[in-house]
Write a structure and sequence with these properties.
There is one protein chain. This protein is mostly helical and 263 residues long. The chain is built from 10 helices and no strands. Helix 1 crosses helix 3.
Length: 263
């Protein structure tokens, strides 16, 4: 489905979507910090990572608390990482984009859920070089909801998921055979299965592979430029390419037209 006119959406609904998105983003900062370290997610209250002071409601208002206290802990005045407000902002933007493009629909819910899952994937892969299985499962379930909303045949979705995993395994072990080193991690391979659920068509999968390759090269160059070495997490490039193909499907059409094909 192509985007709808933003004039059809109530500003109140968009504002509500932004608020919910920011709250989810605050939760994602907690989830992506604790889960890779094996810490409980909701069993303990939020604390400052520097002074361990228990944070209260006024410390945890998404985006605004960080801005109000000038990016510092209210208790110890130590700096709070920019990842927190940026994650909340990114999640809010994703919610607004979903409602803007798809209205208040199941498709919007699925796309917004994917966006939030991808925010988590990008954070954990950049910071810990892992893609959490729990987040992949969530992204896949939202993909199933998306397929249901579009009334796509179940067989096509399952076949596309298996195809995605097959392509991932071929890339992983093919690169290992040729270059004698890993090109993709198993998290990336699993994510390609999630991509299959979402795209469910070779017409969209080929542009996705092209976009992820271009974004991967850009990320790799930036990663090396920042002095992090040659090995870099490829998950963010895959995630960004999937969002492009899902939210802006006309980009896939543009890819084929660039090469003289009509999808």
């Amino acid at each position: 489905m192509y985007p709808v006119d933003i004039s059809e959406q109530s500003p109140i609904i968009l504002l509500l979507a932004a608020g919910v998105g920011a709250i989810i983003g605050s939760f994602l900062t907690l989830l992506t910090h604790r889960m890779p370290l094996g810490k409980p997610i909701i069993a303990t209250r939020s604390r400052c990572v520097s002074c361990k002071a228990t944070l209260k409601v006024r410390d945890l208002i998404p985006i605004f608390s960080w801005a109000a206290f000038l990016g510092k802990c209210r208790h110890c005045k130590k700096s709070i990482g920019i990842r927190y407000p940026l994650t909340e902002l990114a999640s809010a933007v994703g919610a607004v984009i979903g409602v803007h493009y798809y209205g208040v629909t199941l498709e919007a819910l699925a796309v917004i859920g994917l966006w939030w899952a991808i925010v988590a994937i990008v954070l954990t892969d950049l910071e810990h070089t892992i893609i959490l299985d729990e987040v992949q499962i969530a992204a896949g379930l939202f993909g199933a909801l998306h397929a249901y909303a579009l009334q796509l045949p179940l067989n096509d979705v399952l076949l596309a998921a298996l195809t995605g995993i097959g392509i991932g395994l071929a890339l992983k072990y093919g690169f290992l055979l040729i270059a004698k080193k890993d090109g993709l991690g198993m998290g990336d391979v699993k994510f390609l299965g999630v991509v299959g659920i979402w795209l469910a068509s070779s017409v969209n999968f080929v542009p996705f592979l092209f976009f992820s390759g271009v974004l991967g090269i850009a990320l790799g160059l930036l990663w090396r430029g920042l002095g992090h070495g040659e090995r870099f997490p490829f998950g963010p490039a895959l995630a960004a390419a999937l969002i492009v193909c899902v939210v802006w499907p006309e980009t896939a059409d543009g890819f084929w037209q660039l090469y003289g094909f009509v999808p």
